[in-house]
Amino acid sequence: MGCTRSFTELYCEAAVTAFFALTTSLLWGLADFGGGLLTRRAPALTVVVASQAIAAAVLGVLVVATGGWSEAGPRLWFAVAAGLAGPVALLSFYKALALGPMGVVSPLATLSVAVPVGVGLVLGERPGTVQVAGIAVAVTGVVLAGGPQLRGAPVQRRTILLTLVAALGFGTVFALIAEASTTVTGLFLSLFVQRVTSVAAGGAALYASVRRGTPALPEGGRVRSSLPALGFVGLADVAANGTYAVAAQHGPVTVAAVLASLYPVVTALAARGFLSERLRAVQAAGAGLALVGTLLLATG
Question: Taking the model in full, what pTM does it have?
Answer without folding.
Answer: 0.73
